[in-house]
């Protein structure tokens, strides 16, 4: 296999000189944080930077004495722009370089779109914190069409997500689905150049970048069930950094955490690779959690769905139960056929 060049990294200067004081917790408990400086590893796409800066701002507000800086990195997933990611190795592509920075101590935490975090991390890493979710739905972006149902036969719709593609093909078999890659700005530019009649993107990314006005329609979960973790941010640390768990605890969001645990349990049980059109979407309401999931063939000819409501505190068990139901209802055959 060809060896990729090692990542180019840079400390991104932000908002003046770093302060050098010690970094106590609000309670001034010196055990809480060993260092006076926290470094956040992040990809350098605009969306990744927005997300890392969001975490940086939250941490600075919680710990004003502490210097919180970003370490920007380019991952393999960012460098491979010409191929559909599911064909070249899947989700780990966006995470690995950031994990290397955690491993060798160049960074303390990594901020990810939770959707891009593999369900099974290596044992030396931990998903310590799941933050409040943005709108988890998919969005239709188009200058020409307000609804998928308005698009005429042969119209071209862009997405490189097997999950989106199979659901579109199932309901709108007369449309042409063409691959669409690149960061958000690149994808929008391709649409604006007329390479597509419409594209489908996560609403969360568009909103975060102030591009919410590009959304024509939010797709209902019945039409485009979201991916596990879509719209949520996850913070990854080295599993042995107990000191950081308490530091990050105030950033966790209980309802999103329950939703994400249920959704990720479905992906884990079903093998969660990008090769399989798989969607899992949970909605917490008080103590209860409604979970919907599906597995499809890439052409959308078969879609197996399952839905259950359970207790939010048993989120992972709910995810497993829904996964078992999918398998029994035919997902096992679909997964076997995809190899
Ligand atoms: N797969 C890329 C990716 N990872 C996270 C987001 C959007 C933000 C989110 O879902 O949190 C996107 C873009 C997209 O799906 O349109």
TrEMBL record:
Binds 1 dipyrromethane group covalently. GO terms for molecular function: hydroxymethylbilane synthase activity. CDD domains: PBP2_EcHMBS_like. Pathway: Porphyrin-containing compound metabolism; protoporphyrin-IX biosynthesis; coproporphyrinogen-III from 5-aminolevulinate: step 2/4. Residues 258-327 form the Porphobilinogen deaminase C-terminal domain. GO terms for biological process: protoporphyrinogen IX biosynthetic process. It is an enzyme of class 2 (transferase). SUPFAM superfamilies: Periplasmic binding protein-like II (SSF53850), Porphobilinogen deaminase (hydroxymethylbilane synthase), C-terminal domain (SSF54782). InterPro entries: HemC, Porphobilin_deaminase_cofac_BS, Porphobilin_deaminase_N, Porphobilinogen_deaminase_C, Porphobilinogen_deaminase_C_sf. Residues 38-245 form the Porphobilinogen deaminase N-terminal domain. It catalyses: 4 porphobilinogen + H2O = hydroxymethylbilane + 4 NH4(+). It comes from the Bacteria. The keyword Glycosyltransferase does not apply. Residues 1-27 are annotated as: Disordered. It holds the Pfam family Porphobil_deamC. One of its GO terms (cellular component) is cytoplasm. Monomer. Tetrapolymerization of the monopyrrole PBG into the hydroxymethylbilane pre-uroporphyrinogen in several discrete steps. The porphobilinogen subunits are added to the dipyrromethane group. HAMAP family: Porphobil_deam. This is Porphobilinogen deaminase. It comes from Pigmentiphaga kullae. The lineage of its organism: Bacteria, Pseudomonadati, Pseudomonadota, Betaproteobacteria, Burkholderiales.
């Amino acid at each position: 296999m060809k060896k990729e060049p090692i990542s180019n990294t840079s400390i991104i200067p932000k908002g003046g000189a770093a302060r050098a004081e010690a970094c106590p917790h609000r309670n001034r408990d010196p055990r809480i944080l060993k260092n006076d400086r926290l470094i956040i590893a992040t990809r350098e796409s605009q969306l990744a930077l927005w997300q890392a800066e969001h975490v940086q701002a939250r941490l600075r507000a919680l710990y004003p004495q502490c210097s919180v800086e970003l370490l920007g990195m380019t991952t393999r997933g960012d460098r491979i722009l010409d191929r559909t990611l599911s064909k070249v190795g899947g989700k780990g592509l966006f995470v690995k370089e950031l994990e290397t920075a955690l491993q060798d101590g160049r960074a303390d935490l990594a901020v990810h779109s939770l959707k891009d975090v593999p369900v099974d991390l290596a044992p030396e890493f931990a998903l310590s914190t799941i933050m409040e979710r943005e709108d988890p739905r998919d969005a239709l972006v188009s200058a020409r069409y307000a609804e998928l149902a308005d698009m005429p036969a042969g119209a071209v719709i862009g997405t490189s997500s097997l999950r989106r593609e199979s659901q579109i093909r199932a309901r709108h078999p007369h449309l042409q689905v063409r691959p669409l890659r690149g960061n958000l700005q690149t994808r929008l530019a391709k649409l604006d150049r007329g390479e597509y009649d419409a594209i489908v993107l996560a609403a969360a990314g568009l909103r975060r970048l102030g591009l919410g006005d590009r959304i024509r329609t939010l797709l209902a979960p019945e039409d485009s069930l979201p991916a596990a973790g879509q719209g949520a941010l996850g913070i990854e640390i080295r599993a042995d950094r107990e000191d950081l768990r308490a530091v990050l605890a105030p950033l966790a969001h209980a309802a999103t955490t329950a939703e994400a645990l249920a959704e990720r349990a479905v992906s884990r049980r079903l093998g969660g690779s990008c090769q399989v059109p798989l969607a899992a979407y949970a909605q917490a309401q008080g103590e209860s959690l409604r979970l919907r999931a599906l597995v499809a063939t890439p052409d959308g000819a078969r879609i197996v769905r399952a839905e259950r409501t359970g207790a939010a505190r048993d989120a992972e068990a709910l995810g497993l139960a829904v996964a078992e139901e999918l398998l029994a209802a035919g997902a096992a055959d679909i997964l076997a056929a995809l190899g």
